[in-house]
Design a protein that fits this description.
Belongs to the citrate synthase family. By secondary structure, this protein is mainly alpha-helical. The protein is built from 18 helices and three strands. It is globular. The protein binds acetyl coenzyme *A and oxaloacetate ion. Oxaloacetate ion binds next to loops.
Length: about 450
């Protein structure tokens, strides 16, 4: 049966499902339910303690939220300082960040060298995995393929369910090391089987950084420049972690808290990150920008852009979601420090690649979106460009195809997820089980012959 035929067959059930799953928004207030686990002022409900990441986007004064410029800390250290540190030394930063997130402090030179060696040694996939799990079962969606590959790894692991720290750490290190390979191979399989392109399966390397290795595996001729690898490395560093409350880290923590295996928890986190309101927004920004470009005559005409953004917010344009992708954040108000850094990179690259007209359009949208949002939604909520707004623009200048934008986010965020899994498992050690209030009346069971 085709989907079209099934839709026709189940249309009655669709109506039932739609009409019987509505919760009146007024009831959330009535019962004091924190919808989306948010307090009335938009701040998150305190759900746990963490030492891994800290996101700061506002100050609180007398219970009032005071907007502020954003800051991000990994294990207490400002990400800006971390970036300055490794860039000044002309080193790659991502592996150092994984070390910091997992083990709590910055590595010494020799500790970092040893960790890099361990990552390099763990890049290989199990025997037959590429052929049986990736090439024989490609997917049009790389995030879907990545999640399936992570789950499939379970059956290649001799100790998949052993949750002792040593074994869990081994699994985490292997996942951090293997994510770029899984993504690169999934992409090559997709390009070949879905897009009719030639198939390139490059062997992995042990001595390159994560960013270099990924570009090596991705490019047909294995070639990349040092500055390209450094830029990708920066993107990985900026995407590696965002506190315990972001949707995919929280997913990792919720699933881990049941005591389940590493692969189940990480596959769930990948599913979360794929969502268009989370990591999937980077590709959505690209699609939105294509749509805006196709519908606007003059890319510098602010009035024309404003009117199109209004239509987007009113669900009359783009994908009908009503969202301006890449804008807004649960914590940041005036700025997301990662978006600020990525914008600088995007600007420099736009000059180099003669793409200033496009960059300017991004900039105008970034400038106008908060005003239009306030006007159309009648909201006092501060919204700013988030990490997903400029990242795709940067990736496009590295000739990275759009279907890899969110998977690259996953290649970075696996570092944070692993740290949160370990902290949840050994630090919190309680099954996460909040309450849901039932708002339905009790009813008697009716025998089938008596039902209308
Ligand atoms: C890596 C990351 O995950 S960064 C975020 C990536 N996501 C995006 O860029 C998608 C666009 N942005 C959004 O959807 C939101 O800003 C989020 C989900 C990121 C954060 O949302 P929150 O700050 O929690 O806002 P919340 O969900 O409370 O929304 C309040 C209202 O503002 C609206 N809103 C928030 N951001 C936007 C936006 N960018 N465009 C349109 N409306 C928005 C919501 O739809 C909601 O409207 P409603 O009351 O009519 O339903
Ligand atoms: O923190 C959040 O809600 C979203 C997130 O993961 C990020 O911005 O990197």
């Amino acid at each position: 049966m085709s989907n079209k035929e099934i839709f026709k067959r189940i249309s009655k059930f669709t109506n039932l499902a739609e009409n019987n799953n509505k919760i009146d928004p007024v009831l959330y207030d009535k019962f004091g339910v924190k919808r989306g686990l948010r307090n009335k002022n938009g701040t998150g409900v305190l759900a746990g303690l963490t030492e891994i990441g800290n996101v700061s986007g506002y100050a609180m004064e007398d219970g009032e939220k005071i907007p502020a410029h954003g800051q991000l800390f990994y294990r207490g250290i400002d990400v800006k300082d971390i970036v300055d540190g490794f860039q000044e030394d002309e080193r790659f930063g991502f592996e150092e960040i994984c070390y910091l997130l997992l083990f709590g402090s910055l590595p010494t030179k020799s500790e970092l060298e040893e960790f890099n060696e361990v990552l390099g040694e763990n890049r290989d996939l199990p025997d037959g995995f590429t052929e049986d799990m990736i090439l024989k079962a490609p997917s049009s969606d790389i995030m879907n393929k990545l999640a399936r590959s992570v789950l499939a790894t379970y059956s290649y692991d001799e100790e998949p369910d052993d949750t002792t720290i040593n074994n869990m750490l081994r699994q985490c290190i292997q996942l951090i090391a293997r994510f770029p390979i899984l993504v690169a191979y999934a992409f090559q399989a997709k390009s070949h089987y879905y897009d009719d392109k030639s198939l390139y399966i490059h062997n992995t390397t042990t001595n390159l950084s994560t960013a270099e290795n990924f570009l090596h595996m991705l490019r047909m001729d294995n070639n990349f420049t040092k500055s390209e690898a450094e830029l990708l490395d920066l993107c990985l560093v900026l995407h590696a972690e965002h506190g315990g409350g972001n949707n995919s880290a929280f997913t990792t923590r919720v699933v881990s808290s049941s005591g389940t295996d590493t692969y189940s928890a990480i596959a769930a986190a990948i599913g979360s990150l794929k969502g268009p309101k989370h990591g999937g927004a980077n590709n959505k920004v690209r699609q939105m920008m294509e749509d805006i470009k196709a519908h606007i005559n003059n890319w510098e005409d602010k009035a024309e852009i404003e009117s199109y953004l209004t239509k987007i917010l009113r669900k009359e344009a783009n994908d009908g979601s009503g969202l301006i992708y890449g804008m807004g954040h649960a914590i940041y108000t005036l700025s997301d420090p990662r978006a600020v850094m990525l914008k600088k990179k995007a600007h420099a690259l736009a000059i180099e690649k003669d793409m200033m007209k496009e960059f300017r359009l991004y900039e105008i949208i970034e400038e106008l979106a908060p005003e239009v949002f306030a006007k159309v939604k009648g909201s006092t909520k501060d919204i700013c460009a988030n990490v997903d707004f400029y990242s795709g623009f940067v990736y496009s200048m590295l000739q990275i195809p759009p279907e890899l934008y969110t998977p690259i986010f996953a290649i970075a965020r696996i570092g944070g997820w692993c740290a949160h899994r370990i902290e949840e498992f050994y630090g919190a050690n309680r099954i996460i089980r909040p309450a849901y209030r039932s708002i339905t009346d009790y009813r008697n069971y009716t025998k089938i012959k008596e039902r209308a």
